[in-house]
RNA helicase (Mesocestoides corti), 430 residues
Amino acid sequence: MQELKNFLPKKPIQVILMSATLDETTNSLRRSLKSGEWVRVELPEENFLPSESQLTQYIISAEESSKYAILISMIQLKLIRGRTLIFANSIDRCYKLKLFLEEFGVKSVVLNSELPVATRCHTVQQFNKGLYDYLLATDENESGTVPDPPKNSKFARPKKDAEYGVSRGIDFKLVSNVLNFDFPLTAKRYVHRVGRTARADQMGTALSFVNSSEESRLSEVANLLCQKDPSTSQVSQKDNSAVESIFRPYQFRLSEVDGFRYRAADVIGKITRKRIREARLKEIKVELLNSARLKGYFEDHSADLVALRHDKPLSTTPQAHLKDVPGYMVPPSLQALMQRSNQRVRDRQRYRLSNRAKEKQQFRRKEASTSRETEKPIKLSRLRSHKTKMAIARNPDKVAQIKRQLARRKKAANPLFSFGKTKGKGKKSK
């Protein structure tokens, strides 16, 4: 900041400092920029969210045993579309969700505070570009303090970044949905989470899973948001009118998707704490290795960053049959929607396959033309040896080269193509 301060003009200027948080760090930054009086303008928490016409907030009453079934049924039935931020209350919960979604063939990426800063920034950039549809995150470090792990702990984990906080301060673009898989612990955290969608003039949807023990926190959120309307500012936490005025109940019948409930219960039973810990450590090791090895390379080859993806599967035993949704599992009210959606998916796949086939064909033609120009001729007289024949037979490129040489020899011996020679006699024409 001292270097930036040197570029400021010496004459009196007006400085505007904007921050998502106003703490002691912000105050010290303010004093280093400009001494004297400052005017502080702070936006209240209840005014962080846009109006109901732009942001729609839903709630689903779901206990812990039903959350996973509801989530995977909404994803596979195409009820959730667009870029989606899924919030949980811990990193372990995020990795459990990632392993769960992988079993159903749904790719997702975890924004982990234990990963290098460069990896996290690159993940957010790729999410903003549309490479990932589902980003799993947590706001457990929002307070900025990180408890030190026990020194003699058997399962000591990598140190988390104290400045990490996904629910605020990160510029997510074009987020269509925010899904609170775990309801936030405070009303302020809810506001910061949901504030990731419906930004600028974009429309957005917020969906929260609420169980019986979290209803009091839901009332706190409703009371905070109702302070924008003076007529409802005196609502008590026991009164449900505040909740009904802010949140809409999401019409979802779990009885219609029993097939998903059985599938989800079977998959969740296989995701143990040991498996979550192994997957978490595996990703940390891989990302640390990539960050250390490729930092210098990507500085010179920035275009190759596109090929580096962070949604690689952590599980080695995915179940292929869980990717498909049989017709009997689709509720009658959604069958027409699923047919249209599946048709669009098939059309996109057909278009991609056709383009991919064209690209492969063009690449092969280009490769063949370059190889013909640079290839060394094979002595056909050596083909009489059995060892030479067997060695060449194992190499398809050599076989193709010999065929081309024989074709050229046959073409040269053909009188129709032997210019300057008489037909049949091989003598030069007069």
In short: Residues 143-155, 229-238, 419-423, 425-430 have pLDDT under 50 and may be disordered. The longest strand covers residues 55-61. The chain is about 45% helix and 5% strand. Residues 118 and 295 are 9 Å apart (CA to CA).
